[in-house]
Every structure is written in C-alpha cells, then in structure tokens.
Amino acid sequence: MPLKISISFFLATAHEVSHDIAPIFLAQGCVVFDLSGAYRVQNKHFYQQYYGFEHKNTDWLSQAVYGLAEWNADQISQAQLIAVPGCYPTVSQLSLKPLVEAGLLDSTHWPVINATSGVSGAGRKASLTNSFCEVSLQPYGVFTHRHQPEIATHLGIDVIFTPHLGNFARGILATITCKLKQGVTENEVRQAFETAYQDQPLVRVYDKGLPALKAVVGTAFCDIGLAQQGEHLIIVGAEDNLLKGAAAQAVQCMNIRFGFAPTETLI
User: Fold this and answer.
1) Boundaries of each Semialdehyde dehydrogenase NAD-binding domain copy (predicted)?
2) What span, in angstroms and rounded, lies between the C-alpha atoms of 41 and 194?
3) How far lies 121's CA from each of 2, 186, 220, in Å?
4) Is 87 a catalytic residue?
5) Which of 35, 190, 198, 243 is 20 to 30 A removed from 220 (C-alpha atoms)?
6) Residue 173 CA to its chain's centroid (Å)
7) pLDDT in tens, the chain (267 residues)
C-alpha cells in the first residue's frame, strides 16, 4: 500500500507576500498555515482599509478557516488554508468568547480591551518607536488598529480595543472590562468558562487570582482570571505573543489538522 504524504507550509511572511504566494502552494494541494493577516477576515474591503492592499484571491479568502484552535477545531481539521489569528485577537477572543457564546454580556455596553504587548510584538525592524531602550509604556493605534475589526468580526460583537507597547521583551497582558446582563451570577460566569475550556489544556482558567506574564512567557498557554462585582466583570488574559499568539497556535492548528493531540510538541 503506497504511503500517503501530506505536505504543509507555514507562512510567516508579510501580509502582501502571503496573499500572493499562498495560492501557489494551495494549487499544488498543500495545506497552508498562514501567520500573516492576509486571510483572516472574509471581507475583501477590509484589506484595503486596514492592510493597504487590494485582496485579489477572493476564492481562497472565502475558503480560509480562522485558526482559533480551541473554538474552530472541527473546521480546522478539514481545511486546506488555515489563517492563524493575530496575537492580540487570540488572547482577547479566548477571554471573551465563553461569555458571548453563553449570551451573558449586556449587548448595549461594548467590552473594553486594554492590552499591552512586549516590544517583540512590534517586529524586529530597527526603529526608535520599538527600540527596547526607547520604549515607554504607551498606547498606539487608538481606534485604528487592524486587530480591532478582526476581534469584532470573529466574536460577532463590537469591542473597543486599545493596544499598548511596553518596555519588556515578550508577552501580552489584556485587561478586559465588560458588563453582564442583569442577574448574571458569578457561578454562571464560571460555568461558561468551564464549559468552554474544561477539555482545552492550553487555556488555564484561574479559580482565584489573576494571571501575570511570568506564568505564560515561554509557554503555549493562555491564562485567564476573572473578577466580578455585581454586573461588572474584569477579565485578565495573558499569553506569550510569540507562542500562543503566533507560532505555538500555528503548530496547534497543524496538530488538529493532521489528527495529532492538540498539545503535541507544545507541552
């Protein structure tokens, strides 16, 4: 019996480059895991506005599966093109999606996401704005960051997202403020997260306390902590932007796609 070989490619290239070369590999029957933003949102107009290029591969764009591994495993397992989510969108969606799916949020109040990334999130290009010795904690991309529409699109709700750059090397800490529907209890909130992640070993939901970056840097985990007061809920999510927010999630998607345990080689 002939050995069946599947060929896959990981693209960690610029958005425009992934846009151009992914179809070449896909046309040869390869499975592509794209870490750029080129196929994350199935709306061609999004790319002109937020990425500055015209999306011409709309057939592949419509077939791309969004690689939020804990939530889209069934689709990932059948996909040829997997668009690996951005670093901020990963931690933001993992922190909010259990509440959205359980219908616990007050839809008249947009969740507010304040997230801080280490300088590695800004890339390696030599620039004063991301030079380690020059960076001082500050927001950027206010109301204009391309990850805001990515988060909102895949959550299915509007959010306010403000990223910050911090003078540390790696990791993202997201503090998310949201309002619950009247009468929602802490037990209901906890149950929503338990239902979502009880069988997801790379997401760790704290029983008490809030996560710190030191718990996740250098790992493939996303840690989530909760604090509730009445109808107000604070969620704190932490991840390594280079691992769970990028490379490790791509490997997790590959594991799912080819039938391995999601954590294979990651823990």
Assistant:
1) 1-79
2) 28
3) 44, 34, 16
4) yes
5) 190
6) 13
7) 555 667 899 999 999 999 999 999 999 999 999 999 999 999 999 999 999 999 999 999 999 999 999 999 999 999 999 999 999 999 999 999 999 999 999 999 999 999 999 988 766 666 666 666 677 889 999 999 999 999 999 999 999 999 999 999 999 999 999 999 999 999 999 999 999 999 999 999 999 999 999 999 999 999 999 999 999 999 999 999 999 999 999 999 999 999 999 999 999
Q: Say how far residue 55 (Cα) sits from the centre of its chain.
A: 22
Catalytic residue among 87, 178, 222, 253: 87
Domains along the chain with CATH numbers: 8-84+247-258 (3.40.50.720), 87-239 (3.30.360.10)
